[in-house]
């Protein structure tokens, strides 16, 4: 890959390694997301796909590898006990604020109303004006169909509603890249579609997105690129047509046949 | 029985003021000290962890009365040294000694309660903050501490009530709280009913406290109740915000 495309990539990861308690979960995974790319990461459970996604915004700290966000190289140095210098920590926080993360289990702040959930990030992290943020937050909630419930607390919402609020919360930071970690896996089947619909709209408006998903049909429809992870390595990678219609690797063939 | 109340009632009320003062001040000091100590207690650094563990096991593992004697009578043994340090005025006074002992004791208990609360904060919600790029201070302020105090709240109320009643032993080092006055009145009248009145005063104080604490708890946990009356947004308001939003863009 040319140096130019690396420095222009929205998100670039090279040769990431990560072990948990002696077990190597990631054995050197690389990925380049150009602007407007929608990349789906698929694979069976335990293949390391969530860990890989969480390494990108350093919720998990990779043991080795390189990460660049918009060409800016992340300083992954830390001492043996996991401590980081103030400078490094500040860079990480800044980078995280421009990578929007949506979790499998929503993780809305239960003691705040829907509106407060969406407003907290822009107000406290980006220190933007409260009134402006509220206008934007209401518009975002309207977009995901949750404006009517903006004064409710998360405990009173269904799973699909919570996930739509979580997406609005991530969007409120105006992120360069959206990361989705199995956004529909914790939902009842009849609630999956309302969330996928929102994600699909985001893909269509050209947002850069990386998502870990088990929704194969959806991945095939919206992705520009699909990555198949197997036992901590990328086993196959390419366009959705290529991967879903002509899977070359035996593991992927078996994985796909088990999905339908 | 009521004659006793007429003659000595004001004294018992004076005692109640003293009891409330002792409890309120020592519990507040403990409330301020316990949070930073609980956070340090959870740090992986054993240089922080071990002294705090020792402190907690001493104050939880020995009787409050013994601690009070150690501070009040024990400090007398070091009078020359304390005078030299300019601290004798503090340790000479039973009031300050009781305050110090109660504050240290309550800190140990509150610290452990808060540690439990910190441990029980839903980790995913913290992670959501981390993923937004919140620095540590903000994480504590907006996410961790609201959860911690909500979780710890009933246990903290319990600790305050225990301190209020445990404070009765301050009477042993000559302080005239409810119990101190009661003992004095009894020694003058030999009327056992004064203890009944004392018990009643404690009961009234704790009852009022429990009611106030319950109101506060309801406020802290309001997000956990089913919401019946949702403030509905009228369609007009919804469209107007949308228009404002598009104006901004």
Automatic annotation (TrEMBL), chain A:
PROSITE patterns: ABC_TRANSPORTER_1, ABC_TRANSPORTER_2
Keywords: Amino-acid transport, ATP-binding, Cell membrane, Membrane, Nucleotide-binding, Transport
Origin superkingdom: Bacteria
Domain ABC transporter, residue spans: 11-256
Membrane topology: Peripheral membrane protein
GO terms assigned for molecular function: ABC-type amino acid transporter activity; ATP binding; ATP hydrolysis activity
Subcellular location: Cell inner membrane
Coiled coil: none
PANTHER family cross-referenced by the UniProt entry: AMINO ACID IMPORT ATP-BINDING PROTEIN, L-CYSTINE IMPORT ATP-BINDING PROTEIN TCYN
Family, per entry: Belongs to the ABC transporter superfamily.
Official protein name in the record: ATP-binding cassette domain-containing protein
Originating organism: Amphritea balenae
Automatic annotation (TrEMBL), chain B:
Predominant location: membrane
Keyword terms, alphabetized: Amino-acid transport, Cell inner membrane, Cell membrane, Membrane, Transmembrane, Transmembrane helix, Transport
Chain ranges passing through the membrane: 20-40, 160-180, 192-216
Organism the protein comes from: Amphritea balenae
Topology term for the membrane: Multi-pass membrane protein
Family membership: Belongs to the binding-protein-dependent transport system permease family. HisMQ subfamily.
InterPro entries: AA_ABC_transptr_permease_3TM, ArtM/GltK/GlnP/TcyL/YhdX-like, MetI-like, MetI-like_sf
Coiled coil: none
GO CC terms in record: ATP-binding cassette (ABC) transporter complex
Cellular compartments annotated: Cell inner membrane; Cell membrane
Stretches assigned to the ABC transmembrane type-1 domain: 16-213
Protein name according to UniProt: Arginine ABC transporter permease protein ArtM
A biological process from GO: amino acid transport
Lineage: Bacteria, Pseudomonadati, Pseudomonadota, Gammaproteobacteria, Oceanospirillales
Molecular function via GO: transmembrane transporter activity
Signal peptide start-end: none
